[in-house]
Amino acid sequence: MDGISSFFDPSLDPGVRGFLYSPPKPTDDALILTHGAGSNCAAPLLVALAETFCRHGYNVLRCDLPYRQQRPTGPPFPGQAERDRAGLRNAVAAMREQVSGRIFLGGHSYGGRQSTILCAAEPELVSGLLLLSYPLHPPRKPDQLRIEHLPNLGTPSLFVHGTRDPFGSVDEMKKALELLPAKNELIEVEGAGHDLGFKGKAQATSLPARIFARFDEMFG
Questions:
Q1: Does domain 4-219 have CATH number 3.40.50.1820?
Q2: Which of 121, 86, 127, 85 is nearest to 105 (CA)?
């Protein structure tokens, strides 16, 4: 796809590293996308979404969280989630240098969860959230809910969740979303697990287009 360039801003701490998509007919709005705990910004789901949003005029930055910049594999560093959130904040700052319109923050699993925690503390940071497979609880541990901050999440949010996600059922997600004070919507992906059907290389699927259409209805 044309209009993709490597992006690195070392002036910020943590630095911002990823890939920037520049649409031929920009709306001057931007979307930042980041990854789950065991992944990186090259995840097929993020690539497919970045391409879809770019085709519709969005400037898109898909970026690696700070822990992934420090090592190519492995989970986030224990006790350093705050630094990963600082990386998200810096990604927003970097994109404000690129566009004058609205900025949206999106993330898969761990990246999405850290985005919600950040925006619960800083409600004016972005115009909205795109949350892919929010990790409501660890698999087989439904009593360990990650919902403490949700009553403070005042940022409008679009959630995308598979009906076979072991990190939380759709019914559990619906109950959790009742805690949110801001506008929120849920896209259910029938038969999908935590990867939303994106395994290995990018697959031909209508999901990115479906996500964009619902996103556009909510925020357009």
A1: yes
A2: 127
Nearest one of 196, 135, 144 to 169, comparing CA atoms = 135
DSSP code for 70:
H
Residue ranges for the chain with pLDDT beneath 70? 1-2, 200-204
Q: Find out whether 193 and 164 touch, Cβ atoms under 8 Å.
A: yes
Q: Report the alpha-carbon distance of residue 138 to residue 219 in Å, rounded.
A: 30
Q: Cβ(196)–Cβ(162) under 8 Å?
A: yes
Region of 109 (left: φ > 0; alpha: ψ -120 to 50; beta: rest) is: left
* Whole-number Å distance between alpha carbons of 38 and 213: 28
Number of alpha helices (DSSP H) and beta strands (DSSP E) in the chain:
6, 8
User: Where in the chain are the domains?
Assistant: 4-219
Half-sphere exposure of 149 (CA within 13 A, CB side): 16
How long, in residues, is the chain?
A: 220
Q: What is the pLDDT of residues 76-107, one digit of tens each?
A: 998 999 999 999 999 999 999 999 999 999 99
The SS3 call for residue 49 is helix
Q: Concatenate the DSSP letters of all residues of 105-119 into one string.
A: EEEETHHHHHHHHHH
Overall pTM surpassing 0.85 (yes/no): yes
Q: From CA 204, how far away is CA 220, in angstroms rounded?
A: 25
